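Attaching the record inline, Q. Sequence:
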Amino acid sequence: MNVGYCVRSGMADLFEMMQSRTFMQQLGYGLLKIGLVNLFPELKLLFRKIERGALDATAGPPGPPIATAAANSGSEPAHAAAPAASSKPPKH
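Structure, as predicted:
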């Protein structure tokens, strides 16, 4: 086989891949991940967990649950569904 043909064929394949939106997104995310891990090495474990699917997608930040339209029957606004704060002073 002619070396020139192989080079041209390889360059054509590379050009076709560069036209793919999905490929370019994955390449961008990969480069971003490499940059972030180099700047912040403590993120390496987090990225591993994300890649393995070990993080729970429904887990949110700690705190009271957020009221949703489904949780409310429609008769009360979302802010009224939250429990009232206690008027007692905190114990020391």
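The helical segments are 3-18, 21-39, 44-52. The chain has three helices and no strands.

More tomorrow.
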